[in-house]
From TrEMBL:
InterPro entries: Beta_helix (IPR039448), PbH1 (IPR006626), Pectin_lyas_fold (IPR012334), Pectin_lyase_fold/virulence (IPR011050)
Record flagged with keyword Protein transport: no
Domain of life (superkingdom): Bacteria
Keyword annotations of the record: Membrane, Transmembrane, Transmembrane helix
Classification lineage: Bacteria, Pseudomonadati, Bacteroidota, Sphingobacteriia, Sphingobacteriales
Keyword Membrane: yes
Pfam family, one: Beta_helix
The protein, known as: Right handed beta helix domain-containing protein
Transmembrane segments: 63-81
Domain Right handed beta helix positions: 231-396
Length: 539
């Protein structure tokens, strides 16, 4: 090829012609692809290697042609990429506009209140995974169902059918329950399925009809979570209630969490039931217990039996809650942890920063009467809890000889109890252990009606019960506890007292302080023949 310029000229002209032909409109744009641009430089390098040095005229012409082609290609590429960027930018803007319009049309969340994740509220995304509360607020419209869409308006008429249809349709999504248009929503028992997230608007009231089934064999609750997993209820202070006077039994609860797992209930009021505000167990289910339950920032007032009953549970957290004014059916406690069967489970049960107030009997109660040699050890902690104006503040009752495990009270306070602030009743020394750490009773045996059949009148008491006598009481430790009398209406003969006619084992009292008592700080028996063996006092 050296010395033969004509083929070079022909090749250059042919290449430029092809380039110019390719510079045609593409959907209104001028341009070429990156392969063509790369080939331009490759071919230019090839030409510089083969152009003969002896033919300067041909070389100049070829060079001019190449430069012209490069200029045209550069300008064309500039307009190509610029126009392409503008189109993509426009397309992105249009997509954003569509997203914004979708959000504006999503009325259930924006029109009825913003969701938050104060209780780690979760929903189910399109992939079936739980998402956090902050993400729930951003779910697409298809992931949120409004109760209104099922014709349920809350006009005080029975709307059970529509309400249940909405619950069933909302599985894997969020069911938004707006404030009623009338006085309240009225419904029979509602079954909450697995993978449900309920969000109530503030001010919502749901009331049960007066004809729920009441028999022990077949009773109904207002909200029944049974054999279900992954249920979240965000209450926003919604009021859930019954007409208490319509019920004469003890099993018509507001919430019945039965044989279920991964249940979170936050910020609801469970009032005026024919049973408990909250029931947690596994009654007539294939499971032995409910598991991974979180109850936070709720209240239960004026319920017929209990504010909350814990029958069989593992990994239960009850935090920042108030249980008040239980009355009508025994035991009438704010909190009652009481297995019904030897096979029931009470493991990792925690009450933190809770209040029991004005209950007809006990503020906080643990009863282990059913435990036998087959029962699992219990694990219960009450921490920073307060019992105010109850018959008894905190009580452990009827621990069987075969019961095992540990019940701990940490930094708990009993105030204005009608009897003792802390009372152990008929708890066998061979049974589960009790520990009281930095607990305080203030003004126990308050009021003119205060009575004590055993004439102990103490802030802390250990005694038998005539109907449930144990031969040996004990397995109790009191550390850094205090009994305080500061009111004339309080009768506190003793800071801590043990009952006569009983033997004791493994009772340890250390650094106990009593202030304002009428007789003595520590009474280890009213009569001389009481056995003091097994009681150690470290001052």
């Amino acid at each position: 090829m050296v010395g033969n310029p004509s083929p070079i000229k022909w090749r250059v002209c042919y290449w430029i012609e092809n380039v110019l032909v390719n510079l045609k409109p593409r959907s209104g744009k001028i341009g070429m692809n990156m392969i063509e641009i790369d080939m331009l430089f490759v071919r230019r390098i090839d030409m510089s290697n083969i152009v003969p040095q002896t033919n300067k005229t041909e070389m100049k012409k070829s060079t001019l042609l190449v430069v012209a082609a490069i200029v045209l290609l550069t300008v064309g590429s500039f307009f190509y990429f610029r126009s392409g960027t503008e189109v993509e930018s426009t397309r992105f803007t249009e997509q954003n506009t569509n997203v914004d319009s979708d959000i504006e049309e999503q009325k259930p969340l924006n029109a009825y209140g913003k969701l938050d994740d104060s209780c780690d509220v979760k929903g189910i995304n399109g992939g079936g995974e739980l998402v956090s509360g902050s993400q729930v607020a951003n779910l697409a419209q298809g992931d949120t169902i409004n109760l209104r869409d099922f014709g349920v308006i809350g006009n005080g008429k029975n709307e059970t059918v529509g309400f249940q249809k909405a619950l069933n349709a909302a599985v894997g999504k969020v069911l938004f329950i707006p404030k009623q248009k009338g006085s309240y929503y009225l419904t029979r028992q509602l079954l909450i399925p697995s993978n449900s997230t309920l969000v109530f608007e503030s001010g919502t009231i749901v009331q049960a009809t007066d004809n729920l089934k009441q028999s022990h064999a077949n009773f109904e609750a207002l909200f029944r979570i049974q054999n279900a997993d992954n249920v979240i209820i965000k209450g926003n202070s919604a009021l859930l209630r019954m007409n208490k006077s319509a019920y004469k039994g003890e099993h018509n609860h507001i919430f019945m969490i039965n044989g279920s797992s991964n249940v979170t209930i936050n910020n609801v009021k469970a009032n005026n039931s024919g049973g408990d505000g909250f029931y947690i167990g596994a009654y007539k289910t294939k499971r032995r217990f409910s598991e991974n339950i979180k109850i936070r920032n709720v209240s239960a007032d004026n319920n017929r039996r209990q504010g909350i009953s814990v029958i069989s549970a593992r990994n239960l957290i009850v935090e920042d809650c108030e249980f008040s004014n239980s009355n009508g059916a025994l035991p009438e406690a704010g909190v009652d942890v009481e297995p019904s069967l030897p096979s029931d489970i009470i493991e990792q049960v925690r009450f933190i920063n809770c209040i029991a107030k004005g209950n007809n009997a006990w503020g906080f109660c643990v009863a282990l009467i059913k435990a036998d040699n087959t029962s699992k050890p219990v694990d219960i902690i009450f921490e920073n809890c307060k019992a105010i104006d109850n018959k008894v503040g905190f009580t452990n009752r009827y621990f069987s000889e075969a019961s095992s495990g540990l019940v701990r009270f940490i930094d708990c306070v009993a105030e204005n109890s009608h009897e003792a602030g802390f009372w152990e009743v008929a708890c066998a020394a061979s049974g589960a252990a009790k520990e009281y750490n930095r607990c305080i009773t203030i003004n126990s045996n308050i009021g003119s009606t205060a009575t004590d059949m055993y004439r102990q009148y103490a802030g802390f008491r250990i005694s038998n019960l005539k109907s449930r006598t144990k031969k040996v009481l004990g397995n109790s430790t009191f550390t850094d506890c205090r009994a305080i009398k500061s009111s004339k209406n309080s009768r506190m003969d003793y800071g801590i007292s043990t009952l006569d006619k009983a033997s004791y084992q493994k009772v340890r009292i250390s650094n106990f302080v009593s202030q304002g008592h009428d007789k003595k700080d520590i009474n280890l028996g009213v009569k001389d023949f009481v056995s003091k063996e097994g009681i150690s006092v470290i001052r």
